[in-house]
Amino acid sequence: MVRCRWLGGGTGVVLLAAFAGLGVWGRRGPLRVDVLVAWSVTGWRSPGLTGVVRGVNLVLAPVLGWVALGVLLLVAVWWLARRAWRRAGFVALVALGFVAVWRGVTEVKVLVGRPRPVSSGFLDRVSGFSYPSGHVAAVASVCALAVLLAVRWRRWRWPVVAVGVVATAVTCVDRVYLGVHWPTDVVGAVCGVAGCALVAGALWCCRTRG
């Protein structure tokens, strides 16, 4: 168990370092791989596929994060009503972490100041800076929260992980397909959220078992 905590925490630190590195590099502009992938994706576009992608984008939108936050707060209140202080505190802490990550994404966008990939052709109207992807960060955060809450139940643990991975991957492809993000924008968002979740999980385990 101790080894797992160290492995998870160490992996989280590496992912956060990758997130920071991509952000620093993003200030210089897109990477070569960003440009190649962005232009390649334009060849995949078709009216039918674009309609499907826009539908997915509507479902897996940042509003999903607000729904998740509301559910977390309701769960915390429910545990408080039952005087389960520790569980209520854990859920409240998870909700606070979610808000911190979401706010952090906004601040990092301004700090990095990376332009959107206009040259690859927008299919959606967007504004603001590009790195990291707010959509991907929101979906990945919701999935990470679900995993943290389901980790105690072995029956649901891996199904929740599988659904989270698929939802996050689909959102990554969605944002690049629509031409509103560079590939490293979505990769950076995943690294940042996953890194925060792993480090937070390791610290919580150390606190509860130490």
UniProtKB/TrEMBL annotation:
InterPro entries: PAP2/HPO, PAP2/HPO_sf. SUPFAM superfamilies: Acid phosphatase/Vanadium-dependent haloperoxidase. Keywords: Membrane, Transmembrane, Transmembrane helix. Residues 91-201 form the Phosphatidic acid phosphatase type 2/haloperoxidase domain. The chain crosses the membrane at residues 7-26, 59-81, 88-105, 129-151, 158-180, 186-206. The keyword Membrane applies. SMART domains: acidPPc (SM00014). PANTHER family: AT30094P, SPHINGOSINE-1-PHOSPHATE PHOSPHOHYDROLASE. This is Phosphatidic acid phosphatase type 2/haloperoxidase domain-containing protein. It comes from Actinocatenispora rupis.
